[in-house]
Design brief:
The protein contains four helices and four strands, in the order αααββαββ. By secondary structure, the protein is an alpha+beta fold. Helix 3 runs antiparallel to helix 4.
């Protein structure tokens, strides 16, 4: 690709130098002063921007450092939890014993028996304690409700339920 120069071979730099030579000394001084003012204004603007950004970073850096520390602590905790062996929920007779022990520790007079579908629960207990016990055995032993009938009578409730272990269908 060839570039064609304007007639006479004059480029933009040459034209600028010619124009500079063609203006009076007073105009040259004004152009230089204007250039200096623009340069000083640009420098002051950059310094102000840098100062503002430094102030912003001084405020946000401690927060970011605290967040990083929190994330690192969480990562350490997660790694520790992953390295632990998963707790095995009891099965069979141990599951029955664990459910009975949880009921007795809460002072619930429930009859819990092993059956074909899972654990059969019958009895009466305070409603709030009964619900708390069901939540605890679900969380701790992995039991889930297959069928349940609760009839509330004041603060007491009678329950007839079938709870299935974690491996049950």
């Amino acid at each position: 690709m060839s570039t064609t120069k304007p007639a006479g071979g004059v480029g933009p730099i040459t034209r600028l130098a010619t124009a500079w030579q063609g203006i009076s000394p007073r105009e040259r001084r004004l152009v230089l002063i204007a250039g200096a003012v623009v340069a000083v204004g640009t420098t002051v603007s950059l310094i102000d921007w840098a100062r503002h950004e430094r102030t912003r970073l001084d405020r946000s850096l401690p927060r970011s450092a605290a967040q990083l520390e929190q994330v690192q602590e969480s990562a350490t905790e997660i790694a520790g939890l992953r390295s632990q062996a998963a707790l095995q929920a009891p099965t069979g007779p141990a599951l029955l014993d664990a459910a009975l022990a949880a009921a007795k520790s809460r002072g619930l007079g429930l009859a819990v028996q092993a059956g074909g579908e899972g654990l059969h629960v019958k009895g009466q207990a305070p409603f709030d304690e009964l619900v708390a016990w069901l939540a605890a055995v679900q969380r701790d032993q992995g039991l889930r409700i297959l069928r349940m009938e609760i009839q509330q009578q004041g603060a007491q409730a009678s329950i007839d339920a079938v709870l299935a272990g974690p491996a049950a269908p």
